[in-house]
Amino acid sequence: MSPDHDRATAPPVTRPTLSGQTHTPVDSATRRRVVGASFIGNFVEWFDYAMYGYLAVTISAVFFPDSDPATGLMMTFSLFAVSFLVRPLGGFFWGHIGDRFGRRVALSWSILIMSLATFLIALIPGYATIGLWAPLALLALRLVQGFSASGEYAGASAFLVEYAPPRKRGIYAAVVPASTATGLLLGSLIATVLTATLDDQQMIDWGWRLPFLLAAPMGLIGRYIRSKLEDTPAFREMAVKDEAVKAPVGALFREHGGRLLQASGAVLLNAVGFYVILSYMPTYLSEELGLDSTSSYLATTVALATYIGFIFVTGSLSDRFGRKRVLMSASVAFILFTVPAFYLLDTDNFLVILLVQILLGGMLTLNDGTLPSFLAELFPTKVRYSGFAVSFNLSNALFGGTAPLVATWLIATSGNVVAPGWFLMAAAAVSLVAVALSRETSRDPLRAE
Q1: CA-wise closest residue to 341 among 291, 270, 281, 301
Q2: Domain 28-229+257-436 -> CATH class
Q3: pTM score, two decimals?
Q4: First and final CA of the chain: distance in angstroms?
Q5: For 157-210, how does the pLDDT look when each residue is reduced to its tens digit (9 = 90+)?
Q6: Distances (CA, A) of 136 to 73, 76, 123, 132, 397
């Protein structure tokens, strides 16, 4: 009789955890499938979501052709920001689905909705064809994208943390920002190739649509892979005991309001830093500093590649030294070095620009590689998805989605191209205080309640 048959027929052995719960042990093959599915699904979602930011200059010419370039770009980033306004609403919705009916259910539906909305963006006629209906249709689909994205990051993080070995939750959860950055990296590579091979008119006529068309096949592949997974042991145990909360968001506000505030503050550096450094930066370099578009995208592409490698290092560091210590180090680094880094960006030396972007990305990984495990551990199983989704999306709606718009506005009103650096520095100060007031979570078992 084969070993596989023995494993299939033998009753599962449960082991008590420090919290008094019992979980069926998870084998390494299952964990590998979970990591792979989480990576691919999150990668697809954020590739879809990020392409808008990378192609903002071209999109502004397609949908706001009657405006001057600066105004058109501001209007394009306004649509980028408006799509974030639905993310807290999406956080409530997906948090309820994920805590009430399962993490897998929420993640499978969110990727399907995101991919459909992104694919449809590629099919919208431009302003020259249907007038005002063009930006209105774009706005509607961006709102759908924002609603979908609000469930992805939180759900994938909760999924990985609940499957991870107790002392490796940090490095497992780091898969989420790594896959996010990989989605951005592919987007940046595609934008680099398109701008290098097509002229401006070709980009406006049809080139910008190509990345959005990829959403349909990629989304279907991601959904298929996710549908083949079981839900997490922690959620299955809660479901068997019939302990799932009927209104998890209500329980979150009643019982964990203090943690929700701490989590929202801790997310602030991630929200601003992610969209300024990894999404807005090519536009900043080309439109504000005068670097050519291909070089701008190339610098961001290289910085993203190094960011992905740094992410796993910081996830591992958080397992070894604790979440608070690494998160606070990130905030201190941004407070000290962000403004000088932005001064260095204002140069004609491509190598200096590249090194500064790598430095900023490396500093950001200290936060981003640690934050998913920190937020997931902060809340108990019954409201983990909701706590993560609400706090993460609230800060991103208020400060992340508006970051490119605020950065552009700050430069326009102050005349100072370093203004985004001061914005990042302020966000880091708020996150430092929020993390300092929170508890260390890395050594504790995951709590059920």
Answers
A1: 281
A2: mainly alpha
A3: 0.81
A4: 42
A5: 999 999 999 889 999 999 999 998 888 888 878 888 888 899 989 999 999 999
A6: 16, 12, 14, 6, 20
